[in-house]
Amino acid sequence: MTTISMTDSRAPEKARETILIVDDEPDNLMFMGELLSAAGYLVVVARDGPEAMALVDKRRPNLVLLDVVMPGMDGYAVCRHWRAHPETRLMPVILVTGTRPGEERVQGLDAGADDFLTKPVDQAELLARVRSLLRIDALHQEVESWALELESRVDLQVRQLERLNQLKNFLPAHIAEVVLGEQEEQSLAPQRRWVVSCAVDLRGFTAFAQSAEPEDLIDVLKAYYAVVGTAVAAHGGTVERYAGDGMMVLFNAPLELEEPELAALRAARDIQRAYQPLFEDWRAQGQELGLGIGLASGYATAGAVGFADNWQYSAIGTVTNLAARLCALATHGQVLASAKVILPCQDRCVAESLGDKAVKGLRNPVPVYSVTGVRD
Length: 376
Hints:
By secondary structure, the protein is an alpha/beta fold.
């Protein structure tokens, strides 16, 4: 009989089903080993309990044929040892009983054995019981693989939820979900892209802040932020930053839009409409808090900027400066836009040319339009 130990360098690379035979009688080892080897199994042998446990510690076999009566440590003790450890608690064990089959079966069940063979071992019965338990072991292995895959998927979902919660600190929820669904590092990495920048600012807020109570200031800003944020999210935009009564909004970054200029115009229209009731309410209370909007489009460097755990999605470029300057020129209820915003949407918006305007920070005057209507 040829036997291959678990540590033998001659062991084949491909895993045949491995059966460990544990018996202190050489004739039993030879008989069962030759039969199982001829059936195509990889046979490993041990002559006592400690040797068997050492072999299993190195590599778990698919099945063990374990003699009950052995010097020193009997088969029951070996079986109980394996059942006490997670790595081997489901390893199939067939106890080979001899002198008192009935009594030994009861003790074997108590020790955790899966099946039994009575000496002298019948060849057909041996092969049948081995095949049966190997099928069960294969099922256990498959279930364990499913469990590991499920655990991995759950862990991935937990990590995604954690990242999603972090992203929601500076991205609208729907945009954060889109970014997380892609390669997050690529979505947030600084890159050159076409953006529409929308600057929103309150008129008269500085004078109001000088006399208002802090609680009143917070209430005004919360209502104002809600109006702008709701309209921006509805049209796929991203609030880049809050600066007191000023807000900077981006369209087409990081979420790509088919018609970013049109989305920005519609968002600006909705902001002015939703803000008007607030304006009238505050004016009735003696406070003139108007709202102006500036829109500009062009290329910018957009991505996550910051340090450590403090990151913000932002766009850097002339386009954001131009939007802020146009916003500063706008009166209450007015939306001022650059020519690059108007041209792609001229058949769906109504805009009046205000001529070329000198804008601080830009060398040449720029064409400015006042938007008075946008079609859905």
